[in-house]
């Protein structure tokens, strides 16, 4: 059991939790955003990140500090907290990024971890090897071995009460990600960054990111806090949290600002293209686009960075609220509409519905069926997996609209796309309290037909009739031939819903 991370609430595989950081003497609420602070260039002062934006933890790079004489001397003398002016928790990276970028670095895991401890880091990082997406399998395996050696080296370092990251690599090979996750979880380390996803995110490969994280999560334990390393665009927080990511870091707020780019929860705009600011943060309240454009370079960069931070922290609060309210997947659905690549990410998430379903808890906010994809949500699957527990009478009518008077059935159950059949007594039970559109689509009907098929498979001797409201042929084709079909729309019957 890892005693520094506690899950308080859950929705899909997303968690509201608490990461205890003993060296900083703070508890960080997760999911959390760690602003990336470049010690050479404080776009927004760390003290302001804390007081104005609510940052409880930030991340900076110990390799940059170590390799700059002034910074190193100050960090060794004052410690990172004093040097940066930040009282929350500080995580440090090790130079792995520089290793990936330039092919070599002049430090080792043992040395850089000892240095991180010395300068007062609260969460340190060994030198892992980020393998880019689509690298050869041979390379990905060789890199994993090097990362495993780095973890073994890290285990020999006296880190005191500094927490230590155990990175999970494996490029785009799900089995390698899963194995790396299992090996990382087997260590005594504390936080689990899923690495080298930035190239996927930059290329809008959200579906590949989802597959990589889902694989890593299969290897990790439920009590492992997971950091989606390098992911800082608010557009994808809901998706990544729903997968079970707990920590995010954002360099995006500052990097994008430098390029004149303005973040929103549905994408990135260029300041030059904006005629209106779709935001109510203090910056957007005070300025209009022309005012921002007229600011001089450094000032404009700072103003944009502050807006970017506001919108980023705001989205993280929204995600936390959604977990609390049990409607995280509804938020994921909304965000999935912002870009086709995000929709691919959501669809990839639904490919992992059985994995999500294992972590999901039973009762949440009202299920809103608002898209084709809703039919593939884990709650639909869970309902259908449990149909074999229900007692089925000899003669059963499944009806979308009530029952004919004077019928001879033993029982009449409801059938609601996308869930399928259930006894009326369960109507007030989650997720069957769902709000569904009156104008059902084929995907929901197919899912409901699969529910009918599951019920019949568990009760092959029952005499089942399905009264449906003009379902599409491909949905009806999924209903077992033993079921008697009645098309209510053909009868012109639209009774009150039972
Ligand atoms: Zn704003």
UniProtKB/TrEMBL annotation:
<feature type="binding site">
    <location>
        <position position="196"/>
    </location>
    <ligand>
        <name>substrate</name>
    </ligand>
</feature>
<dbReference type="Pfam" id="PF01702">
    <property type="entry name" value="TGT"/>
</dbReference>
<comment type="pathway">
    <text>tRNA modification; archaeosine-tRNA biosynthesis.</text>
</comment>
<keyword id="KW-0328">Glycosyltransferase</keyword>
<keyword id="KW-0808">Transferase</keyword>
<dbReference type="InterPro" id="IPR002616">
    <property type="entry name" value="tRNA_ribo_trans-like"/>
</dbReference>
<feature type="binding site">
    <location>
        <position position="284"/>
    </location>
    <ligand>
        <name>Zn(2+)</name>
    </ligand>
</feature>
<feature type="binding site">
    <location>
        <position position="279"/>
    </location>
    <ligand>
        <name>Zn(2+)</name>
    </ligand>
</feature>
<dbReference type="GO" id="GO:0002099">
    <property type="term" value="P:tRNA wobble guanine modification"/>
</dbReference>
<protein>
    <recommendedName>
        <fullName>tRNA-guanine(15) transglycosylase</fullName>
        <ecNumber>2.4.2.48</ecNumber>
    </recommendedName>
</protein>
<keyword id="KW-0819">tRNA processing</keyword>
<feature type="binding site">
    <location>
        <position position="281"/>
    </location>
    <ligand>
        <name>Zn(2+)</name>
    </ligand>
</feature>
<comment type="function">
    <text>Exchanges the guanine residue with 7-cyano-7-deazaguanine (preQ0) at position 15 in the dihydrouridine loop (D-loop) of archaeal tRNAs.</text>
</comment>
<keyword id="KW-0479">Metal-binding</keyword>
<dbReference type="GO" id="GO:0005737">
    <property type="term" value="C:cytoplasm"/>
</dbReference>
<dbReference type="InterPro" id="IPR050076">
    <property type="entry name" value="ArchSynthase1/Queuine_TRR"/>
</dbReference>
<keyword id="KW-0862">Zinc</keyword>
<feature type="active site" description="Nucleophile">
    <location>
        <position position="93"/>
    </location>
</feature>
<feature type="domain" description="tRNA-guanine(15) transglycosylase-like">
    <location>
        <begin position="13"/>
        <end position="340"/>
    </location>
</feature>
<dbReference type="GO" id="GO:0008270">
    <property type="term" value="F:zinc ion binding"/>
</dbReference>
<dbReference type="InterPro" id="IPR004804">
    <property type="entry name" value="TgtA"/>
</dbReference>
<feature type="binding site">
    <location>
        <position position="128"/>
    </location>
    <ligand>
        <name>substrate</name>
    </ligand>
</feature>
<dbReference type="GO" id="GO:0016763">
    <property type="term" value="F:pentosyltransferase activity"/>
</dbReference>
<dbReference type="InterPro" id="IPR036511">
    <property type="entry name" value="TGT-like_sf"/>
</dbReference>
<comment type="similarity">
    <text>Belongs to the archaeosine tRNA-ribosyltransferase family.</text>
</comment>
């Amino acid at each position: 059991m890892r005693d520094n991370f506690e899950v308080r609430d859950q929705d899909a595989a997303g968690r509201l939790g608490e990461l205890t950081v003993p060296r900083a003497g703070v508890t960080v609420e997760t999911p959390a955003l760690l602003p990336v602070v470049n010690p050479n260039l404080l776009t927004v002062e760390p003290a302001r990140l804390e007081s104005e934006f609510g940052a409880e933890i930030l991340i900076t790079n110990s390799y940059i500090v170590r390799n700059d004489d002034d910074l190193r001397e100050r960090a060794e003398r004052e410690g990172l907290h004093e040097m940066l002016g930040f009282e929350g928790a500080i995580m440090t990276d090790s130079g792995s990024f520089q290793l990936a970028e330039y092919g070599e670095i002049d430090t080792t895991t043992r040395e850089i971890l000892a240095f991180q401890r010395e300068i007062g880091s609260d969460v340190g990082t060994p030198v892992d090897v980020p393998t880019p997406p689509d690298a050869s399998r041979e390379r990905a395996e060789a890199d994993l071995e090097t990362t495993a050696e780095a973890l073994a080296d890290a285990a020999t370092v006296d880190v005191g009460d500094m927490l230590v990251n155990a990175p999970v690599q494996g490029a785009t090979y799900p089995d390698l990600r899963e194995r790396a996750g299992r090996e990382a979880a087997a260590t005594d380390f504390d936080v689990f960054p899923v690495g080298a996803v930035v190239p996927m995110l930059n290329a809008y490969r959200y579906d590949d990111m989802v597959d990589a994280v889902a694989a890593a999560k299969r290897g990790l334990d439920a009590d492992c806090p997971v950091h989606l390393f390098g992911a800082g665009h608010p557009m994808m927080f809901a998706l990544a949290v729903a997968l079970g990511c707990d920590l995010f870091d954002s360099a995006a707020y500052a990097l994008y600002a430098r390029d004149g780019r303005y973040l929103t929860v549905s994408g990135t705009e260029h300041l030059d293209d904006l005629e209106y600011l779709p935001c109510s943060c203090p910056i957007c309240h005070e300025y209009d686009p022309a005012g921002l454009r007229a600011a001089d370079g450094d000032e404009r960069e700072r103003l944009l960075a502050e807006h970017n931070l506001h919108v980023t922290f705001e989205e993280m609060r929204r995600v936390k609220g959604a977990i609390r309210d049990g409607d995280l997947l509804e938020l994921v659905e909304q965000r999935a509409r912002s870009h086709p690549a995000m929709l691919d990410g959501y669809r990839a998430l639904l490919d992992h519905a059985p994995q999500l379903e294992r972590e999901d808890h039973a009762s949440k906010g009202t299920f809103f069926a608002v898209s084709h994809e809703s039919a593939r949500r884990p709650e639909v699957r869970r309902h259908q997996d449990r149909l074999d527990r229900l007692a089925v009478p000899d003669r059963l009518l499944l009806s979308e609209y009530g029952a004919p008077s004077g019928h001879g059935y033993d029982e009449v159950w409801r059938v609601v796309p996308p869930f399928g059949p259930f006894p009326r007594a369960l109507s007030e039970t989650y997720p069957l309290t769902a709000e569904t559109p009156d104008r059902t689509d084929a995907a929901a009907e197919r899912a409901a037909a699969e529910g009918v098929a599951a019920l019949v498979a568990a009760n092959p001797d029952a005499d089942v009739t399905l009264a449906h409201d003009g379902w599409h042929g491909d949905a009806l084709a999924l209903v077992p031939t033993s079921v008697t079909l009645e098309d209510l729309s053909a009868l012109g019957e639209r009774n009150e819903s039972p």
